[in-house]
Structure formats: structure tokens, C-alpha cells
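Late entry, written up from scratch paper. The run itself happened at the end of the previous shift, but nothing got recorded in the book at the time, so transcribing now.
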Amino acid sequence: MNINDRRLLEDLHTLREFTDTPGEGVTRFSYGVQDRKAREYIIKEAMDAGCTVRTDDIGNIRIGLGANIPGQPVILCGSHIDTVRNGGWLDGIYGVCSALEVLRTLAAAGSAAAPPDSSSAAALPDTAATEQAAGCGYEMIIFAEEEGSNFGSTMTGSKFITGIYGEAQLDELTNDDGQTLRQVLAGFAAADPDAAAPGSALQVPWDLSDAAAMLELHIEQGPVLERADLPIGIVDSIFGMRVIEVSLQGVGNHAGATPMKERYDALSTAAECILAAEKIVSSDPEERTVVTIGKLEVQPNCSNVIPETVRFSLEVRDKDAEEIDGNMDRIIHQIRQIAGGRGVKCEIREHSKSAPLHLSDEIIAVIRQAAEDAGIPHKVMDSGAVHDACMIAQAGVPTGMIFVPSIGGRSHVPEENTEEADLVRGARLLLEVVCRLMGGAQA
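Output as recorded:
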């Protein structure tokens, strides 16, 4: 039993065309037109395979094998379909398409269908086909608004699934147009509810008591595997992050008529703050902590006017919670010192936070054994990026992640790419791990 590698790649190439920015990377925000098209495509493929589909009020989707027994433990597997603006074609959607391909493969095997075509040098040995009968069922998940591109909060869908977010966030989270999440969801559902959300509804937060394990397959989004010339990474720990929003209020004035000593320039202040943050984090002797200023707004944003207001995001990530907080606290102190010294008002708002996470040692062991049995070189590694799997793991579900290499270590950009052989190998390993977990878990 093996996946249909050509079908997997065709899915990926089809879905990369669902973008608001053709020729300039993939832009597919949650609850937009392209998001709806991607959902409809994936749901149709799953329903054609005889699977059941349920969607919650946030837009998270859970798709199960028709052969699943009610109340039976299940292996959950999936990722997200939304992207950053002008992002890559594999981030998130690779994990979804691979979970879908596992779903179709298991559905075909369960109905005594002939195994799909499997012509690839990346094939895994057929060791798991007889191990899946008794233990668990299988369901794939599509998480909504993972990137936070609409509402500025990463992993929004999985935070609702696990109860970290609730009713209050429906009105607190707003997009760039000032619409709340509640308003956007209402518009999305009203536009075409049957196409977006077939099947029975899921309650938020989800009841995860039936979840025996959670798996997420993903591109690495960094250079570690490519530099080591390794095709597979097995994630051990996932970085946590703390995000703040900084608002600097200076005094707008004429660019030519205002002497340098009489300026209260919000942008120059922001530049000094940003460089100070970089210097603080760069002092980390382990060179592991990272800081990013990814979003910056300048007002009035005119070439001949001294900037009056600047707002920017700032995030710190590390695998150690004390390092995250220590670095962020030093950065906040330095920002206040710099702004005060320049006579610029400063407001800092804590935006969001996620704790570092060590994944399940038992799941890691299963993945490692499957890779070793298949003769696949691999590495146990950290993930600097956060993923929906983190939220499910924090809810008490044993969780594992598999990485495949990113060419040039590039991600969240149009140049994001992975060799086809690596994409297929990762999905085949995922199937093997799913089958081992299905056969080995206890009901």
C-alpha cells in the first residue's frame, strides 16, 4: 500500500493556482475567495473517496474515513491552507494535501480497491499494510487562519479548537479593514454556506478526547536539512514566541524647514529601537534566539513630511521561555529609554504569546523507527516556526511533526520550493507512521 505520488503533486500544482497574486507568489487569506476555492477542491476530493466532512463556526474542517467507528480513537493529521501575502506554494498546503492523500489511500485499501499507482524511487517498504486493522481510525484536519494574515494572530483556528480563544476574540480580532472576526465569518458563511461547510457542524472548542495522536507534515522553512543533505527532519521541540505592538508618537513637521535639533521623528526613533532589539538578541551566545520586525506603518508617509506616527510589530522566538521573556523585557526597556530620550511618546501592547513545546517522545520514536526501517537518512531537530500542531499538543494530544527540506531555506516568499522526490518521500513516510499508529494505539 502506498500513496499515489502523481495525484499528490497534481493536487499541489492545482492548489497553487488559487491565489490573489498570480505570478507573484501565493496569496490565499482565510475566508477569501481563493480560500473558498481551495476548501471546495479538497472537500470534493475527500467526499469522492467516501469520507465524512464536518466544519466548525471558525472554519476549521475535520474529515474522517467513512469506515471510522463512532467513539473509536483517531489519528489526526493535517495543516493549513492559508498563506502570507505573496507567500510560497507549499507552506501548510503540503501537509494538507499529504493528509488528504493518506486519507484517500486508506479509504481505497479499506474498500478493497486496487492500490494506487506508486512509481517512485522514494517508495517505502510495505511494512504497515497489515498493522492498521484494529487500533484507531484516521481523520484529517484543515486549520483556519494559521498565518494570521487576516487578523494578526497566528494559529487562530487551532486556538479556538483548543479553547485558548473564545467568544471574546470574535469581537477583539479585527482585520486591516476594521472588520471583526465575527463579521468576516458571518459574511463568509452567508456567501455560500453549502460550498464552504458541508456535513454536520462541529462545536468550538472541539472534544479531543478521541484523539490518540496528531501528526503534521511540513516543509522545514529553514536551511538545516538542505545544509546537512538530509531528506527528513523529525521535530523534537517547537519554538515559542512573544509578540508586541509598538506605537511611537512624534511631531509631524516640514522636512526642509525644521532644524535637526528640533525634530521629534517617530521613524528615526523606530529605526534606533529596531537596531537596539537586534543587538540585544544577537548577544545570545547560543545564536538561537531570533527577533523580527515584520510589519511597520508610517504616517503620514510622505517624502517631505517628518514622520509623526510609527507602529510596528516585534516578535521574539526561542525554545526556552525564560530566554523569550528575558530578551523581550530587555527590548521593551530599551525601546522606552530610546523614545524618552528623543522626546517621542511610546505605547507598547502585548499582542500574543505561545509557549515553547517539546513534542511526544513516543511519536518521535515511531517516526524515527519508520525512517530507519525505510533507510531514510534523517535528523531530530527544532522548529523555529510555530505550527497548529503546537496547540493540539498543548491540549494533551501526543503530537509529532515531520519536515522535508526547503530549497535554499526559503519560505513565506514566492521562491519557496522543495524537490518533488522529497515531497513524495515525506508523504510516504507520513502514511507509514499513520499506519503504525493506527495499528498500535489502544482503543
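The first helix runs from residue 5 to 15.
(Scratch paper discarded after transcription.)
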